[in-house]
C-alpha cells in the first residue's frame, strides 16, 4: 500500500475541501425565481450548454417525472431552485427543490431522476379557491442567496458519475471525506475587485459548518426553513404572512426573507413583506397601486435595496425595513412586469415594462428615467417579467416576452434599440439565458396548444433547437430554471421535465 507524507496529505485535503465547499456554496446555482435576487434569468456560465454545443445534436429530453401534488386552480409546480453539487451522509447529489400548490416541498436528484424527499402529502388543507386566489403554496421556493451580483466565471458541473457515498456521519454542512469522487468542479474563479461603494460577495469558507437550507411559504403564511439533504426542519416555522394570502417571489438574502402578497386574497393587503430570520421582526410595505406587478414580484440591487412595480410607479425600498426611499412614475400607463436590476458602466439600473408595450430603464440610485423603448409588446399584454444579460462585448440586452414572440432590446447610453425578434410563439414566458443561449418557452394553452421549448442564439435570435412534441401539456404558472447543463420546466398536469445532454453513468 503506498504511503504519503503528512504535508502531501494536508495539501491534498485542503485543495479538495476548497473545491467541494466552493461547489456547495452555489457559485453558479439557480438559487431563486429568476436565478438571482436581481431576477436576471441569466446563468452566466455552463460547462455543457453553449451556442457551439447547441448547434450539434444531442440536446434532448432527459427525463419526465410526475410529482405528487394536487393542482389548485391554475397552480401546479413552481420552477426549481437548484444545488448542482452537494455532499452529505447520503453521498453525492445534484438536487432540485420544487414547490407544489398542494402545500408540499419536494427534493429531487436531478441527475438520477429520483425522489429524495417530500414534505406534505401534496394536498393543501385550504378550502375552495379561485383563479386569482387559489390557496395553497403559490410562491416558488428559494435557497438563501446574496445581494451582490453573481460572479461571472463560475461553471456548472453536474455529477459525472453515479451516486456513491464518500462522507462520514451526518451533520448538516460538515464534510468529512473518505473517498474522493472521480470528477470535481473546477477551482473557484478569481474574486473580482469590488466596485467603489458596492458590496462584494464574501468568498466561501472551506471550514464552515453552516447548514444549507431551502425555504418555502405555505398557504397558512408560515415560512419553513428545511435542510437541503432531507427536507427536515430544525426549527419551528415562522409566521410570516396572514393565512390565506397569495404569496409571490419568495427570496432570502442577507439574513432576511422577502415575499409579496398579491390579488388581495383573504383580505390581505397587497404589498411586500420582510422578516429578519434572527429577530423574527416582520416589516411591511403597502402597494401604491392596486397590486404588486409581475411574476417575480420584486428585485434587489447589489446593496440590498428592493425594487417593486405597483400601478404606474417603480419604487425603491430600503433593505430590511421596506421604507420607501424614492419612486419613478411611468405616466398614464401602469406597469405589467416585475423589475430587473443590472449594472452597466459601474452604475445600477432598474427596468420594467408598462401596459402600453414599452420598457422603461431608470437609474437605481436616483430613480430617474434613463431610456424608454418604443412599444415592443402587445398593448395590455401582461409581460410578467423581463430577462437581461451582458454579452462578451459589454452590450447590455433586455429580453421581453411580447405576447407572440420574444423581443431583444439593446441598451446603449440613453437609448433602447431593437436587437432581434424571435419566430412566433404561443404565449411566450420569460426566457432564460444560459452561457450565450436564450431558452424561450412557449406556454401553449388549454385550447390544445402544447408548450414548446426553444434554444436561440442570444446574439441573433436564430433558432438552434426546439423540443418538438416532447412536452405533452401546457403551462399556466412558473417558467424555466437552468443549471448543470440542464433546463427545467413544469406543466399544468404536474409533470416536471428536464432537457439537456445525456450524462454517462
Describe it for me?
The protein has 505 residues and is mainly beta. The chain has a single domain (6-184, 201-500), classed as Quinoprotein alcohol dehydrogenase-like superfamily (Methanol Dehydrogenase, Chain A), CATH 2.140.10.10. It has two helices and 34 strands.
Shape: globular
The CATH class: Mainly Beta
Q: Distance between the terminal alpha carbons, to the nearest Å?
A: 29 Å
What is the fold-level CATH name, i.e. the topology? Methanol Dehydrogenase, Chain A
Would you count the extended β strands for me?
34
In terms of per-residue confidence, which ranges show pLDDT below 50 for 5 or more consecutive residues?
Answer: 1-26, 155-198, 203-208
Binned strand content: 35-45%
Spatial extent as radius of gyration = 22 Å
CATH-defined superfamily: Quinoprotein alcohol dehydrogenase-like superfamily
Q: What's the arrangement of strands in the largest beta sheet?
A: 1-28-29-30-31
Number of alpha- plus pi-helical segments: 2
- The number of domains is 1
Per CATH, the architecture is 8 Propeller
Largest sheet: 5 strands, mixed
Helix content: under 10%
Structural class, by secondary structure, is mainly beta
The residue-averaged pLDDT reads 85
